[in-house]
Amino acid sequence: MEERPLSDWLPLTKKEVEKRGWDELDVILISGDAYVDHPSFGTAVIGRIIEDEGFKIGIIAQPNWKDDLRDFKKLGKPKYFFGVTAGCMDSMVNHYTANKRLRSTDAYTPGGAAGFRPDYATIVYTNILKELYPDVPVMIGGIEASLRRVTHYDYWKDQLMPSILVDSKADVLVYGMGDQPLREMLQLLKKGVPFSNLKTIKQVAFVQETAEELPKNKNWETVELASHEECQKDKLKYAANFKIVEVESNKWEANRIIQKVGDQTLVINPPYKTMNEKEIDRSFDLPYTRLPHPKYKKRGAIPAYDMIKFSINMHRGCFGGCSFCTISAHQGKFIASRSEKSILSELEEVVEHPEFRGYISDLGGPSANMYKMKGKDEDICARCSSPSCIHPVICSNLDTSHKQMTALYKKVDAHPKVKKAFIGSGIRYDLLVDDFNKNNEDGNHDEYIEQVITRHVSGRLKVAPEHTSDATLRMMRKPSFQYFHKFKEKYDRLSAKHNLKQQLIPYFISSHPGCEEEDMANLAAETKDMGFQLEQVQDFMPTPMTVAEVIYYTGVHPYTLKPVKTVKTKEEKLNQNRYFFWYKRENQDWIKQRLTKAKRPDLIEKLLGDQSKSEKKVPKWLEERRTKSTHRQAQAPEQGSKISNINRKKRD
User: Which residues have CB under 8 Å from 524's CB, separation 6+?
Assistant: First the structure.
């Protein structure tokens, strides 16, 4: 395949800008990630949208913030504004494990090298720009800015922080998926509207002096939160604030939110309605090269890109509303699905990739099996404010048919250049359990899972029950573990029918609010009884704008304000995590002591009762292999967090 011209990418250097014959750029994007021109990377999507609206756009990727700041100056001063994002992950989640240990790698940097972005990257980048170019507006966005748009608890500083607009000094924040507000903003700028007048656009936030009158919009009601200072004094007020923010974020016709911060007022305009098929296709059908910028060739592969370069994202959004997850908080609970035509067109591009060998790594989304799912009667959805469409039960108005997905899988599977298309992003197994999901009018559940098992599993299928304790699962907004048992029965039956031996890989979390040590012991015993030796596990990390983060900080549930027990110390968190690895010799005496103290001899017997017998029968070669395997699994709490963030946040 011929090498593509450099002009196929958005410019990263002054030389590339000059080769296009441009004297000045209209917009410059600053990103904490390396520039990968692919629709799974937010900087590429935002850059291509700006280009599509007719603006001259350049990117400064992973600028050095420690030297004389030449990287921030190299493309000059933009005509309209700077755009700033920390990247596809919150920079603190990117940098630190749940135990606050510094990670040694960064999946969004060439060679996986760490240290190419600062902590709190959005704040650092924006402050630098405000010093260098005080008269140029700065717009911030991406998952870090989006989920820190209001008073939030920061796990790494262990304190409440105000809206990121305050510390960054940015002019405007675009929250959620920025396609719609960005296009409106650009179209107004083209018409000559000053940047300072873009304060009635939906899905933007800004701060203004409290004495100033709020921008007028006759269609919006305004809801006021407890001030930042009140939240600092009273945790219950912070918890009550969260409920308002989450409810308003999940409405079709939401209210404007305001919050006083010192002598300023934070203003958060209501969100857009979820993109329709034509709108989301427009974002995915832009002229991406689907490749990293050529400047990175000598620096090594970009791990996050390698993971998704042969994947196809079918939709955005997630209606699960899980307490610990940021997907619905950022992408929204309503599903924005691409057209079949758009997906199959992308497939044609993927199969032409010079390294493609016939295998699609993932045909999915945040949760693979939500494509085309929406309310049967949209008038009911318009009145709904529930944060989840499937908890505590599946909404009777939700169309959960998997028919269109199954048909699309078959079309991809039939492509002459595709040997196999895998479902790598994991599926919501509860949608396929008839006892839980009563919305199976066309009887498609078994047809879908049979198609997946026989054609789309690469030896292992990932699902996320997350826990076995019903009390903890309710806190997580997840279904009872009994439904996982039912799903496994179906999975095993269909696998046996086709004589397939493919692992079912369940994900679990320790230390989640509401989870006690005994719950972890029960989890270990129950999963052991099911034949699992767990490896896809992680320790809970409280991230901004999640229910679980609010519970962790305040000690109460934001919807009931009732106390919830949560472990917080490093030792308590490590204790819970150790139960995942009951089969490791160094944990067995410790587990026995803990369960003896808890007066649970039954759990000792279940977990360790047959251990001494089985250890005698293990050959030396198998013991050595097991030791290596368990060492890798012990790293899973760290690695699993990063991998799941990449998998679950396909496009932030």
Answer: 579, 580, 582, 607
Whole-number Å distance between alpha carbons of 505 and 632:
16
Q: Which residues is 57 bridged to in the sheet?
A: 27
Which class for 536: exposed (0-12), middle (13-18), buried (19 or more C-beta within 10 A)?
buried
Q: Is the pLDDT of residue 648 over 90?
A: no
Is residue 86's pLDDT more than 70? yes
Residue 214: which region, alpha, beta or left (left: phi > 0; alpha: psi -120 to 50)? Answer: beta
pLDDT at residue 426, rounded to an integer: 84
Specify which residues 510 forms β-bridges with.
539
Arithmetic mean of pLDDT over the chain: 92
Candidates 84, 99, 170, 156; CA nearest to 510 is 99
Q: What per-residue confidence (pLDDT) applies to 442?
A: 81
Nearest-angstrom CA–CA distance, 392 and 246? 17
What token pair was written down for 512? 């989640």
CA distances from 169 to 64, 85, 139, 140, 155 (A): 20, 14, 10, 10, 22
Roughly what angle, to the nearest 10 degrees, separates helices 517-529 and 601-608?
40
pLDDT at 644: 40
Q: What is the mean pLDDT of residues 100-128?
A: 98
> Was domain 6-220 assigned CATH 3.40.50.280?
yes
Binned at pLDDT 50, 70 and 90, residue 651 comes out as very low
What is the percent of the chain where pLDDT is above 90?
Answer: 90
Torsion sign, CA atoms 270, 165, 175, 559: negative
b/e for 55-91, b at 16 or more Cβ within 10 A? Answer: bbbbbbbbbebeeeeebbebbeebebbbbbbbbbbbb
- Please give the Cα distance from 257 to 265 (Å, whole number): 10
Whole-number pLDDT of residue 535: 83
Closest residue by Cα to residue 315 from 256, 376, 372: 372
Alpha-carbon span 411 to 247, nearest angstrom: 38
- The whole-model pTM stands at 0.92
Tell me the C-alpha to C-alpha distance, in Å, between residue 484 and each of 396, 458, 582: 21, 21, 21
What are the extents of the domains in the chain?
6-220
Q: State the pairing for strand pair 398-399/374-375.
A: antiparallel
Give mean pLDDT, residues 645-650: 42
CA distance 623 to 644: 29
Distance CA 521, CA 247 (A): 35
* Residue of 28, 45, 269, 275 lying closest to 150 (CA atoms): 269
Cα 248 to chain centroid, rounded: 20
Of 15-29, 341-355, 571-585, 615-629, the poorest mean pLDDT is in 615-629
Higher pLDDT, 375 or 622: 375
Enter the tokens of residue 123.
């704040």
Query: Mean pLDDT across the stretch 235-253?
Result: 95
Beta carbons within 10 angstroms of residue 382's beta carbon: 12
Residue 150, number of CB atoms within 10 A of its CB: 25
Other Cβ atoms less than 10 A from the Cβ of 405: the count is: 25
Closest CA to 490 of 430, 446, 431: 446
| Residues 343, 365 contacting (CB under 8 angstroms) | no
Q: Is the pLDDT of residue 632 over 90?
A: no
Amino acid at 269: N
Write down the pLDDT at residue 646: 44
